[in-house]
Amino acid sequence: MPQLNPNPWLFIMMMTWLTFLLIIQPKLLSFTTTNIPPKLTTSTKTAPWTWPWT
To answer: Which CA distances in Å does 42 have to 19, 35, 39, 46?
Structure first.
């Protein structure tokens, strides 16, 4: 059963992951996002909840 022979496929899988991790991923992470959410300068104050049955 040739499907159980990991010799060529293991090498191909490892080379694919190394290519992704060392070449493609740093190029993708270098892009900056254009939709940066605004930072809130004021904190929201919350009031305690008043339960009608207490």
So the answer is: 45, 21, 9, 13
